[in-house]
Every structure is written in structure tokens, then in C-alpha cells.
Amino acid sequence: METHRRGETISQATAQAGANIAFVKYWGNRDDALRLPLTNSLSMTLDTAVTITTVMFEQGLAQDVLVLNEQVVGGEALTRVARHLDHLRQLAGVSWRARVISRNTFPTGAGIASSASAFAALTVAAAAALGLSLSPRELSVWARLGSGSAARSIFGGYVELHTAARHEDAWAHPIAPPEHWRLADLVAVISREHKSVGSTGGHRLATTSPLNVARLAHVHTALAQARSAILARDLEMLGDVLEQDALTMHAVMMTSQPSLLYWEPGTVAVMHAVRRWRQEGIPAYFTIDAGPNVHIITEPAHVTALQDRLRELPFVQDVIVCYTGAGARLLDVSTPTTPSPT
Ligand code: DP6
User: Which architecture does CATH list for 184-323?
Assistant: First the structure.
């Protein structure tokens, strides 16, 4: 379908994608420019933490425009989005600039990584608007170029991202669909402050830690245990792996040069509380990304009890609850019949 507005031709699509929480995380890239991780990683896609993005390629638009949560955004965020669109434009042989309108259904700074859902939704929407027919695997490869963890958000449920030496070989694939096992992720918000070193900068420091080698040597075992635990729906086994993996990743972060210490007093307080509650019989396990907020993984039956207990802790500002979610999907597309000239 061809859309005309103010005499211009527009090709547009809208997509949505969920964020994800990694149970076996990656920290460090073998190639930063291509975002080829040092290791595989394994995550669960989240249901209510979603990014919805519309991409409109417009003839005559001088430069890409980014509107994020109703605010026009420039600087680094726009540069990163424009660079990502350049890859897809090149693939499609199209030169039109785009208007990107994106919103998150979850608060920013709440400890849910928005780059995963953002670049998964952007990739799916932009590819459709450009008339590219890409397989889920190819979408995952291209999403990875925008943000490593975005490769996983193309798929729902439990997902593993395979690293590789070449761009086209590093893609994610689903291990089990969302309906296989419904788990909950309660995010205990300790701080909403913008972290001084984000993931992109942090990945560059991983190899400066003497502990990184030990983490790399162990990650295959962790991945195998996590896969088995998911297939067997064994929360105790999965919990052991995900807590240990988060701690080894933070040990690498803390011992890199410069040192990255993401934990706040509240982070440690929640870690202790989760272990105490576990001893009392509540199956709950913590994991922490590149920030101070703590994700608590549990079964749906224990969400209310945990939410109540978390809210009573003095350092906890808020608790956000997500469950296992579906993969990225296209919501709407309208493209011109004639592709735009390069
Ligand atoms: C700690 O995918 O956010 O969450 O490619 O720079 O966007 P960029 O990095 P990103 O890194 C994820 C880091 C992590 C672990 C994980 O999700 O595997």
C-alpha cells in the first residue's frame, strides 16, 4: 500500500519486542564494532516490559529523527539508531531517512535494559518498512548489531545467543517457548540514577579483569546446566546457575581496570533478603545486570509474597513484575509498491 502525506511517499511499519533478563550473561565482546560477544548467553524474554516502535521512511527527509517516549532525542541515542538504520538501508538498497517513534511500556532507569527491546523492535519494524523479508534468524543477527542482547529479544520464552567469529553466524535461537514454563521476574528498583558506565563501555573492560579468563572457562558448564534446568523446569537448578553467573560477572566488573562497582547498599540488602527468604521456603533467586537493581526470579505462585516483602525493605523504591513473554512481532506495515531509489 502506498501512503501519501504532504506530497511525500512514506513506507512505514510498527513492531513490538519484549526486554529480556539473562540467566547466563555475556560480558565483553570479541569484536566491539560487530557486537560479537565473547561467550554465548541465555535469557528469558519478558512480557510486560515492551518497546513499541514505528519506523517511517520518508522521501525528502533530510536526516533520521528519533522520538522516544514522546521526547525528540538527539546525541548518542540518535547516532546509534541512525547507524543501525544505515545497515538495514544498505541491505535494502534504500537511501531514505526515517522518523522513528518509540515508546517503552516500562519506566526508564528501572533496571530493565531497554536496548534489547528497543533494537529488536527497531530491526523488525525497519526491515518490514524497507520491504526486506528476513527470517527470524536473520532478524536476530541484525538486531545484535544494534545491541548484543537485542538478538535474544527477537524470540520469546527461553533463548540462547550463539557467538561466532563472523557477523552472519552470531544469532539467537529459542530453547523453549514461553508456554513451556511461566516464571516471574520481580525487579527491585534500588536506584533510578543513570549509571556512569553503560553496557557498551563496560564490555570493553571485561578483558582487563584477571578473573575474566576463569569466567570464560566456566561459562560452558553454566550454559549446559541452565539449558537442562529450563528443559526440566527445575527452578532450584536454574537458580543456582543464575545466581552464580551474576556473581561471577560482577566479580569481573569489580576487578576490571577501571573497576566497575554497580552495587549499592540496597543491592546487597536485597541479595541477603532473597537468601533468607529461600531458607524460609520461598524459591527465589537473584540476578543483577549492569546496574544496582536486583531481578528476583521465582514461580508465579510466590510473586505476591515476594512483592510484599520487597516493598517492606527500606532501600527498595519500587517493584516491577514481569513474566515469561513472547518474541518480537510486527503490528502493522504499509510500504510503497515501488522501492525508493538509492
Ligand atoms: C549485563 O546487550 O546491553 O545485561 O550491545 O552494548 O547494548 P550493548 O550491550 P547489552 O549487554 C548486556 C549486558 C548484560 C548481560 C546480558 O544481558 O547478557
Answer: 2-Layer Sandwich (3.30)
